[in-house]
Write a structure and sequence with these properties.
Layout lengths: L1 H18 L3 H9 L15 H16 L10 E5 L14 H8 L4 H16 L3 E2 L8 E6 L3 E12 L2 E4 H7 L10 E4 L2 E21 L5 E19 L2 E7 L7
Parallel strand pairs: 1-2, 1-3
Antiparallel strand pairs: 3-7, 4-7, 5-6, 7-8, 8-9
Length: 243
């Protein structure tokens, strides 16, 4: 009971302090909300594009036949994947170093080929002079295609004077433009990835042909659908598409 009597004055004091606040202050406290800002960045290439390319590369490499290379010491020659455009740099040494590097799109393809060779029992070497077999790697294509379809009215810019003429007003020659949003009944965006890979292997000492495999083509797909503006409904064989 003593404890309850000691708490009563403090509770009464709190209630008195709250009631003494001005109505505007109470309204501010009730309506005030916290605000947090999250920094969002967009890379130059989307994850969809990269999954389309790497998935197609995986599919193409899986079709290669490497049985004849088992237990051989193999050097993988990637010089035929070097881009034809030469980089520009003030240092000639840097130019030569960059020119000998495959483009970033082909690095994953090369890694997949090397992994398949290792899984097949091939012994890889980084020195050409130590290799029994030289494997020259080639790729006919490693990129994506995109198809878009729209049943409806695409987004466009229309002079406001033209809208006035439609509704009975006068046509203005230099009137500002008005952005008209897209009105779609059915809309779809289809993206496809393609990768082609092949190799030729020959004995390092004599240059005699040992094995040829390919070209094989790998394909990936992602399709997004909108119906009456709702969606997208995504299907395909890359993440995060639904199989």
């Amino acid at each position: 009971m003593a404890f309850l009597r000691s708490r009563a004055p403090s509770n009464l004091l709190c209630k008195t302090a709250i009631l003494s606040l001005r109505p505007s202050v109470l309204l501010f406290i009730l309506l005030a909300t916290g605000c947090t800002t999250i920094r969002v960045t967009d890379p130059p290439r989307s994850a969809d594009e990269e999954f389309l390319i790497t998935g197609a590369a995986e599919s193409a490499v899986q079709q290669l036949s490497t049985d004849t290379l088992r237990d051989r010491i193999v050097y993988v020659d990637t010089s035929f994947l070097i881009p034809t455009l030469q980089p520009t740099a003030p240092d000639p040494t840097l130019i030569n170093a960059l020119a000998r590097q495959p483009s970033p799109d082909y690095l994953f393809l090369i890694g997949e080929v090397r992994a398949k060779l290792l899984k097949s029992g091939v012994r890889l070497t980084g020195a050409r002079e130590k290799a029994q077999v030289v494997l020259e790697l080639r790729s006919g294509a490693l990129s994506t295609n995109r198809l878009e379809y729209l049943l409806g009215i695409p987004a466009s810019l229309i002079p406001s004077g033209a809208l006035g003429g439609v509704f009975g007003g006068s046509l203005a020659v230099n009137s500002p433009t008005v952005a008209v949003p897209e009105l779609s009944i059915v809309k779809s965006t289809k993206q496809y990835g393609f990768a082609s890979v092949s190799f030729v292997a020959y004995w390092a000492d004599s240059g005699e042909l040992l094995s040829v495999s390919g070209p094989f083509v790998g394909r990936t797909a992602r399709e997004d659908y909108w119906i009456f503006g709702t969606g997208p409904r995504t299907i395909g064989n890359i993440p995060p598409a639904q199989r």
